[in-house]
Amino acid sequence: MELARISAPFAAADRLLRRSPDTFARHIDEFLVAVHEKTDHEKALRETAAHETVAHRTTLAGCMGLLPVPHCLVIYNLCVSPEFQGRGIGRALLRHAARRAADSGRARILAASKHGGAWFTRHGFQEIDPDSAPEEWRRLSPSGRKSSLYCLRLDDR
Length: 157
What we know:
Layout: H1 2-12, H2 21-26, E1 31-36, H3 41-44, E2 45-46, H4 50-55, E3 59-69, E4 72-80, H5 89-103, E5 108-113, H6 117-122, E6 126-128, H7 135-140, E7 148-153
Parallel strand pairs: 4-5
Antiparallel strand pairs: 1-2, 1-3, 3-4, 5-7, 6-7
GO molecular function, one term: acyltransferase activity, transferring groups other than amino-acyl groups
Protein name: GNAT family N-acetyltransferase
InterPro entries: Acyl_CoA_acyltransferase (IPR016181), GNAT_dom (IPR000182)
């Protein structure tokens, strides 16, 4: 499974939660993927299952999980393969997530990170107190992970 392959180095470095290929397969419909087949990653970004990406013989460049909860969209497992970093792929995934959130009437995007705070703040997120997060997010967040929580308010953009 390509999502597990692209995520593994980040999980090994404790930058993402470890997820099995079976977990990715069960949640495949939650993922946006960016594939390397064009230089314009906004156009290359597809809302598709990872197995379709593999079938098309494209290279998975990045991915992001999206979990809609009441009033916000939670993004998770955001990663871009090292060979594709610095090309705007993460930013394109985030823009697509923001459109999905706005289109569904959600006013904010939440993300947790142990190490990626600088990236999130560069893209308009503000660190918030995890106790202020929606109950749905707190139920999903692994205890003991010691992640910081970041919020992007779409009405501030």
